[in-house]
Amino acid sequence: MKKYSKKKLPLDKTRSLLEPGPIVLVSSQWKDDRSIMTMGWHAMMGYEAIGCYIWDANFSHNLIKKSKQCVINLPEKHLLETAIAIGNTTGADIDKFAEFGLTAEKGRKVQAPLIKECYANFECEVIDTRLVNQFNFFVLQVVAAQSAISPKYPETFHYRGSGVFMVSGENIDRSKFFTPEMLDG
Fold this sequence. Notes:
Elements: H1 14-18, E1 24-30, E2 33-39, E3 42-44, E4 49-53, H2 59-67, E5 69-74, H3 80-87, H4 96-99, E6 104-105, E7 114-115, E8 120-128, H5 132-135, E9 137-147, E10 157-161, E11 164-167
Antiparallel strand pairs: 1-2, 1-5, 3-4, 4-9, 5-8, 6-7, 8-9, 10-11
């Protein structure tokens, strides 16, 4: 078993090692205003619930707070530069769908648009706002979902901090070591 020599890690670098998951694009709409934001701070809170941090200075924050809906769109690595550009702009000034050549699709359950160019779309409703005012933390319930037929495992990208990303890597199948009831499909 490998052992490591270690050095002190500055606390603000924690996220570079524990970033919870892939970068996603969150689309939202309230009345005639719509937007897209880039988000990396999210966590699964069960099979169909997602917790996420959305800064209150972000234009999307108020759209989601008012509409109580959004779509979590999962991009693949071909959209990395687009995701960065989306994160560097505000929907208060531009229509991000038009600006970045993205196709808005109608959702099945929510008013917020889906992004056609993304591998998967998770339509969400806000189910808990108790932590929004203090921590800008929303709890979402996935109410409809769709994903591309292939590939089975998309090439998602994950933020490591300091402008560095990691692309999802090699898949290692160890399903034979799990009991059937512990496998999720």
